[in-house]
Request: fold
Amino acid sequence: MNENNGAIKKMMIILSKGTLENVYAAFVLANGARMEGIEAEMFFTFFGLEAVHQKKLAHLHTATVGNPAMHIPTMLGGLPGMEAFATSMMKKEMEKIDMPDVQEFLEILSASGVKLWACKLAMDMFHYKKEDLYEGIDEVITVGDFYKKSEGDGVHMLFI
Reply:
């Protein structure tokens, strides 16, 4: 029998997408883990790096094409201005419930003890430097490093 009886001790969240809805989903899950006393670490890879890139994190968009939850035909989602409109509407709704913006949310996550890791491969691929990223990024690491940090009982990995 497992010593921890299935208790979640740590959440390892991999963010690979840079859309507003995916970034907030990952942030809310990491924050929720900390609020429940569960350790949380986030690994930003591929387009998920946009959530921690200083020049891009304030300009994330909501996906309108290929997003069945938008309940609009793909052709309409691709029309000029639709993505900006959907993003604006999403941000207004988030403001109504006092959801922090991306920069502030990163500060909250860092302050609560969430470890923030950037993927070395994706950084190299996009020609990013650590200086391009949110200052609270703990380190740029390899996938192997991330897996080592994921060892142990009660660790759950989530890919977004």
Observations:
- Strands lie at 10-15, 39-44, 115-119, 139-141, 155-159.
- The domain at 10-159 is CATH 3.40.1260.10 (Hypothetical Protein Ychn; Chain: A,).
